Amino acid sequence: MNQGILFIITAPSGAGKTTLVKEILKRIPSLSVSVSYTTRPIRPSEINGQNYHFVDESTFQKMSSNKDFLEVAEVYGHKYGTSKSCVHKEFEQGNDVILEIDWQGAEQVKSLFKKACSIFILPPSLKELTDRLYKRQQDDSVTIEVRMAQAKEVISHYTDANYIVVNDIFDETVEDIVAIIRSRKLQVQTQKLNLANLMADLTKEEQFT
Q1: pTM of the model
Q2: Total number of domains constituting the chain
Q3: Tell me, what's the pLDDT at 205?
């Protein structure tokens, strides 16, 4: 069975990470996304269990107390958590897993999974980030102002990531992230496990006549 790899996508709100992840999943069949739990209210365009698992504060707190989460973060006043059992289930099935989480959660996950590969998505400019937040029509102007006020703080954590990609031209950004994922899967430390049987066969001593 292949050794599953954990990929982490982090970005300021509005940088396009959700749309990018959806497209990447179409291109890499062996990659699965872990759907986070959140106390944030569901938006009109969202589907419970697909975008997030939407739960109340008491349910979230109970899950956290039971250590059901790999990581927990509070973003814009709402709590988010990654299901531990969901990630391990995908690993058991031989899949790689991608997490779309905040920088706070990324730090927690990387402390548990030392070999996790983190990718930070940057907007081409703060103006473009503001325009995208307004265009998606998911938040009111007050919420957008709060998100933009915190954007620089979020962006300052790009140095914690393994890779940085600027989401300017969408298709090129997708290609860059796919290339990162494929490259990471081909590293020697990963292939030594995935190709153990092949390597044993190729390097065994035989007498040729």
Answers
A1: 0.87
A2: 1
A3: 74
